[in-house]
UniProtKB/TrEMBL annotation:
Organism (species): Circinella minor
Source domain of life: Eukaryota
Protein name (record): Uncharacterized protein
Listed SUPFAM superfamilies: RNI-like (SSF52047)
Amino acid sequence: MTPAKNEPTFEPSFCAMLTRCPGLQALIIQNPLGVVPYHHDHDGLLESYQVNITNTVLVVLATSCTQLKQVTIEGTCHGYTPSGFNRYANSNGSNNLEYLKVDLNPDDYDIPQIVNMLPRLVTLYCNNLGFQTRFAVQPLLQQRGGSLLEDRYFPW
């Protein structure tokens, strides 16, 4: 990330904004296909400004935006770790979450545990969960009247 002169980086600016949004109900962050948004710096040159959702951002979401019902984080904009995401899912601040669309690799994340930690989650949208994870998660969501949505990428 290369912010313009005297311009804060994304994380602190975004976190400061989130602390002022306690009633936020939907958060959609998309950075499809690794597209990097740009802004003008003071010299008129374009500088990249990469969106990055980190563990710190998740902590601020959990403490400041407790009314969130929908979270979508797409593309290459996630810099959180499994432990950071688990802390978010296990916090009281995520208790109202009903819809979650994120990239969670089943090799790194315990997705059934995450679904169990989110008591109101009815829709989970992920990519390439694999048979075992899908088999464990889908019934949990169906018991809540929801569903598992999945994009599957095929190697051919």
